[in-house]
UniProtKB/TrEMBL annotation:
Pfam families, sorted: ABC_tran
Alphabetical UniProt keywords: ATP-binding, Nucleotide-binding, Transport
SUPFAM superfamilies per UniProt: P-loop containing nucleoside triphosphate hydrolases (SSF52540)
One term of GO molecular function: ATP binding
Matches recorded under InterPro entries: AAA+_ATPase (IPR003593), ABC_transporter-like_ATP-bd (IPR003439), ABC_transporter-like_CS (IPR017871), P-loop_NTPase (IPR027417)
Similarity-based family: Belongs to the ABC transporter superfamily.
Highest taxon, organism lineage: Bacteria
Protein's UniProt name: ABC transporter ATP-binding protein
Ranges of residues in domain ABC transporter: 13-238
């Protein structure tokens, strides 16, 4: 795929005071955020938080109750060649099963004035070239997912929105999509990716937009998101666990022992634990900062939201 030629046009996704009601249910509730180009933004939130609805509103597939969504300052409906501006994967079941993967893409290209050579390019890019002449109904879930991604990339778009792209992908596919997202962002594109896989999201996202019950819960860098919610800890391994536990306890640290034999010391600083162990002659095999995970931070933030959803469903 070539570089983005309109980088100066700054095709961001802009969501402003966006609200969508289905009957009495507010799927999206006064949402405002911007997804800028040049980075991968992870789109997170519990089931039913409004992620898919937001993406559908950005793509003009549904009308907002109030507020607006725009791409590079323009609503989707006003784009002259929409697939050249934004490519999206929403529903991997969207392709007709009786068509071949290649025909699905060729028809899409023909109806959107996209040069036919793009079909071969995206088939190659998504690893589908060997299966291009097979009917879509013979595809595995992962292959359908790749076809949906191929369709999203067909118009060489400046904005790429993918809903759960890792769904059904095998480990090789997961590594591939990680590299693809990184490259799209490095090329200056705007990349918004929803996922329920926290380790996965942490491996590709620079920035996060988190929803809960249709509202914005966080719009921050991945690092800040974790650091603000997960307290620092120190990871230690020793050949003398009794001595370690004893020394830490005497200095007011509640160390936690893990099944594989390492310890974590919550709310502790690396230097303090290192000096302490050294001064007291405790032999250390490992001493490291225990990084907080996105999963820890996410669960901390969304605990209240998830609880609400569970209760209201039971009621
Ligand atoms: N067409 C529709 N008609 C009625 N309600 C809808 C419709 N589409 C979505 N909803 C409701 O809006 C809310 C948000 O749904 P949405 O699919 O946007 O959430 P999500 O964050 O994408 O969830 P998930 O992680 O489960 O995919 C849900 O309560 C859902 O039931």
């Amino acid at each position: 795929m070539g570089p983005v030629h309109h980088a100066d046009a700054m095709t961001s996704i802009d969501v402003r005071d966006l609200t969508k009601e289905y009957g009495t249910r507010r799927a999206v509730d006064d949402l405002t955020f911007t997804v800028p180009p040049g980075r991968v933004t992870g789109f997170l939130g519990p089931n039913g938080a409004g992620k898919s609805t937001t993406m559908r509103l950005v793509l003009g597939l549904d009308h907002p109750t109030s507020g607006a969504a725009a791409l590079g300052g323009r609503p989707y409906a006003s784009l002259r060649e929409p697939l050249r501006t934004v490519g999206a994967l929403l529903d991997p079941g969207a392709a007709l099963g009786s068509r071949t993967g290649r025909d699905h893409l060729r028809i899409l290209a023909a109806t959107h004035r996209i040069p036919d050579r793009r079909v071969a390019e995206v088939l190659e890019e998504t690893g589908l070239a060997p299966a291009a002449r097979r009917r879509v109904r013979t595809y595995s879930l992962g292959m359908r997912q790749r076809l949906g991604i191929a369709a999203a990339l067909l118009g060489d778009p400046e904005v790429v929105m993918l809903d759960e792209p890792s769904n059904g992908l095998d480990p090789e596919g997961i590594v591939w999509i990680r590299g693809l997202l990184r490259r799209l962002a490095d090329e200056g594109r705007t990349v918004l990716v929803s996922s329920h896989l926290m380790n996965e999201t942490a491996s590709f996202a620079d920035h996060l937009v988190v929803l809960g019950r249709g509202r914005l819960l966080a719009d921050t860098s991945l690092r800040e998101f974790i650091d603000a919610r997960v307290r620092p800890a120190v990871r230690v391994r020793t050949s003398d666990p009794d001595a370690l536990e004893n020394v830490l306890a005497r200095h007011g640290h509640q160390a936690v022992r893990h099944p594989d034999g390492h310890w974590t010391v919550p709310d502790a600083r690396l230097d303090d634990i290192g000096r302490l162990a050294s001064a007291e002659g405790v032999p250390l095999l490992e001493l490291a900062a225990a990084e907080g995970t996105l999963e820890q931070a996410y669960l901390d933030l969304t605990a209240a939201e998830t609880e609400f959803v569970t209760q209201s469903q039971e009621a």
